[in-house]
């Protein structure tokens, strides 16, 4: 049991680290595409798992195949040339020398030699050299430092609450979808298919409309489907109950995925991993409440449905307080995260931020580079 808990925790930590690293290595226009593409790969693995179990016919063999694949990935993750550290995190924590090496490697891999004599490339080499000039000692931050912010802690709390509700109310829709004792394959493949549909929906809309409007729409659909099932399950036709349950499951998957992406974009780089881990943990905590619906011959289902429906209405109101992060550069420090304020709902943020490579703590270096250019 201890080894299984350790294995599960290690997989969760690896997934979280990959999510954060992927987000920090992407520029703002491509963050959504790469994040949703990775989610589609996860859905593909979920759909392939029963087939692998059917071929293996033994869980020992299946566990061995999983360990073999994980061991192969460790060779990839352990090589700095193949999987480098995020320069965004290195710069935010004051590790400028390591960031310079990685950025230099990125430039050479892209076909740009920073040591060439051309004006643009020489200024790039000068800028990379400025990163190491007077670099401070590395400064690591603890997630509890968010308590001293005015806006960042509130944004994280709202997104964690949305993730908790979307994960917990999913059981209510599944129980409405299968009132009897469900088989394993029908809910399993349905949830995986709806997760793929929600990912595609976010891929098509989250950059077009913005993160906050899509999250608001998903939460609104979640609330309406929950309230209609709560009030009229005994009076509605079976096809209506089926449609509302599927729509609610789709909305809960979309809210859960967008809450994770949204939180990764509003948390500062210095605490992004811990903050995103708390939001994802809140979603898993909501899913862990599913056994409560089976208490006393499923008599706890109604109370659980009422509680999560009421919380979903509260989450709908809280989403209005969130800022818009579409097209914006990732906040680096706690102060940057505090500058993400709520904007008008029907007017999104800028499509792209063009921030300098040098952090704000080195204005003299930036002025010198501008004069040389």
From TrEMBL:
Signal peptide: none annotated. Residues 361-373 have a biased composition (Polar residues). It is a multi-pass membrane protein. Pfam families: Sugar_tr (PF00083). Its main location: membrane. InterPro entries: MFS_dom, MFS_sugar_transport-like, MFS_trans_sf, Sugar_transporter_CS. Keywords: Membrane, Transmembrane, Transmembrane helix. Residues 1-327 form the Major facilitator superfamily (MFS) profile domain. Residues 353-373 are annotated as: Disordered. It is found in: Endomembrane system. The chain crosses the membrane at residues 32-56, 185-206, 213-233, 239-258, 270-289, 301-322. PROSITE patterns: MFS, SUGAR_TRANSPORT_1. This is Solute carrier family 22 member 31 isoform X3. The gene is SLC22A31.
């Amino acid at each position: 049991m201890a080894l299984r808990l350790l294995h599960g925790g290690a997989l969760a930590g690896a997934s979280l680290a990959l999510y954060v690293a992927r987000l920090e290595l992407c520029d703002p226009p491509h963050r959504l595409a790469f994040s949703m593409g990775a989610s589609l790969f996860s859905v593909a693995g979920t759909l392939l798992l029963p087939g692998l179990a059917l071929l293996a016919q033994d869980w020992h063999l299946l566990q061995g195949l999983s360990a073999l694949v994980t061991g192969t990935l460790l060779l990839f993750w352990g090589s700095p040339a193949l999987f480098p550290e995020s320069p965004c995190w290195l710069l935010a924590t004051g590790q400028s020398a390591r960031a310079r090496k990685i950025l230099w490697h990125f430039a050479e891999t892209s076909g740009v030699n920073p040591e060439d004599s051309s004006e643009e490339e020489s200024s790039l080499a000068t800028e990379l050299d400025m990163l190491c000039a007077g670099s401070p000692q590395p400064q690591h931050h603890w997630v509890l430092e968010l308590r001293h912010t005015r806006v960042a802690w509130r944004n994280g709390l709202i997104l964690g609450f949305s993730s908790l509700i979307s994960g917990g109310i999913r059981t209510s829709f599944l129980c409405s979808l299968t009132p009897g004792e469900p088989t394993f394959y029908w809910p399993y493949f349905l949830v995986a298919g709806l997760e793929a549909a929600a990912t595609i929906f976010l891929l098509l809309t989250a950059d077009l409309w913005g993160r906050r409007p899509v999250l608001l729409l998903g939460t609104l659909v979640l609330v309406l489907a929950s309230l209609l099932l709560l009030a009229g399950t005994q009076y509605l036709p079976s096809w209506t109950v089926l449609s509302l349950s599927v729509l609610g499951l789709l909305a809960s998957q979309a809210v859960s995925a967008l809450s994770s992406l949204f939180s990764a974009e509003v948390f500062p780089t210095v605490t992004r991993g811990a903050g995103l881990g708390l939001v994802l943990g809140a979603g898993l905590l909501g899913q862990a409440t599913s056994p409560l619906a089976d208490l006393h011959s499923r008599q706890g289902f109604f109370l659980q449905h009422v509680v999560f429906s009421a919380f979903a209405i509260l989450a709908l109101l809280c989403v209005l307080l969130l800022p818009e992060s579409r097209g914006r550069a990732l906040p680096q420090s706690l102060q940057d995260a505090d500058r993400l304020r709520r904007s008008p709902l029907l007017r999104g943020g800028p499509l792209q931020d063009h921030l300098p490579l040098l952090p704000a703590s080195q204005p003299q270096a930036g002025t010198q580079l501008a004069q040389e250019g």
